[in-house]
Amino acid sequence: MAALFHIVAGLALLAALIAWVVAVRGGLKAIAANRAAGQGGGAGSYALLAFWPFAVQRRGHEAEIDAVRTGKAAIAFFVCVTIAVAAISAYTNLTFKHSVAPAGSSPAAPAGAPSKS
């Protein structure tokens, strides 16, 4: 069962990366369209694209098409990250090894202080 959650976590992280790439490609197209229309797209747009590509938007009459695609990519990204976190949590819960105290020791009894004599 732990192996299944390990695979699910890996696939979810891969899907989140793919959603990020889709958003970056859409952002690059939006910046190119904005430049072609003479509406900016300087270094700030590329910095925004690197850190949060879901915020880059196209201006003009075709903005709705990009907004829908970018919105879908953002939703897919967050769903995939949520699934990955849940799968990682389940995996660690299934594979966590509890430490066992040696026989004869009582973990409830406090250890005595060392003496100086």
Q: What's the structural blueprint in terms of helices and strands?
A:
Blueprint: H1 2-36, H2 43-51, H3 63-95
Task: Looking at this protein, list some descriptive labels.
mainly alpha; 66% helix
Can you put this structure into words, describing what you see?
The chain has three helices and no strands. It is elongated and about 85 Å long. The longest helix has 35 residues, at 2-36. With 117 residues, it is mostly helical. The mean pLDDT is 82.
Shape: elongated
The helical percent reads 55-70%
**Rg, Cα atoms, Å:** 25 Å
Query: Mind describing the biggest β-sheet?
Result: none
- Cα(first) to Cα(last) distance is 55 Å
Mean pLDDT score: 82
Question: How would you sum up this structure in a few lines?
Answer:
With 117 residues, this protein is mainly α. It contains three helices and no strands. It has helices at 2-36, 43-51, 63-95.
